[in-house]
Write a structure and sequence with these properties.
FAD/NAD(P)-binding domain; globular; 2 domains; seven-stranded mixed beta sheet
Amino acid sequence: MSRFETADVVVIGLGPAGSRAASLAAQAGLRVIALERRREAGRPVQCAELVPALLQQEVPDLLSVSEQRVTCMATYVESDPPDEMPNFPGYMINRAAFDRLLAEKAEGAGAECRFGCALLHIDTEGVLYTSDHHCLRAQVIIGADGPHSRVGAAIGQQNRELVETRQVTVPLLHPYEATDIFLSGDYPGGYGWLFPKSGFANLGLGLRSETRYQLKQLLDQLHRRLMATGRVGSTPVSLTGGPIPVGGRLPATGFIGRKAVLLAGDAAGLTNPITGAGIAAAVQSGGLAGRAAVDWLAGKSEALDLYEEEISDLFDASLHRALRHRQTLIACYRNGSRPSPAELRSTWFAYPQYWSDSFAGS
């Protein structure tokens, strides 16, 4: 028999977006229940773990979960020597510790965080049915449940363009403070990366979902290439991967019955369509979603519209530019060709062509 519960806000997903939303809503004195299908925050790790240094403004404790700093970027286009971008400050984080930090902050603010509890179904009145046999009723539902969001699907918003990734963590044979990016016509709709992490490195590859069957072979080739240069060891210590939404931002608000719904992070399509970066956007949008829930429940009828406006102001310009570049790349493959080195450079943000005003207005 199902047990019925009520809350002011239910948050689905306790990644960076969900934990931030739960924290902000609970700080305002609301009853918040947050569900996470995984049994532990941040595990398994499904990202490259690089965040921009500016994220410290949102997460002051960032250094406590950082493994090392990153100072620059080196971009390898096909077999050409690398092009260096000297000013690229960031941190390699321990993603599991980062997610755990944010979830602990949510609990400290008063949110009830339930791990190992999945959302199974949302009915037409907005009642949520969970894997632990609970039925939850809330006035606001926040969907922070990733690329395949059940909450998003319930309001007709789903990520339909995805990149699939595969990543191994390998020994790093020499200290390094740059992020390496590998662009090639062999990587349709994606790229390869080597991100250093204190004696190890995350070596990964992303491809259009239609070509994911090539992931293992192409990543093995890249691994052997880097082994031959004496940069990384041969034996991976871990393997991970997963989908990344690359179709641009989705409408992030709606209703199920009379229940207000807000989407944040990957569920709202806030991942960059070129780089796949999404952690900072998840933290920012989660905080905004939590505040919007507070305002909505305080009787501010404009709260949902303002949330849409805020995330539009924050993310639309960069997402639109990246999406147009991505469409240019994909068009090459659909026409039966492959992008040239010049085209690869023009669609990667480390090069001035990416930022051309003529492209931005097209």
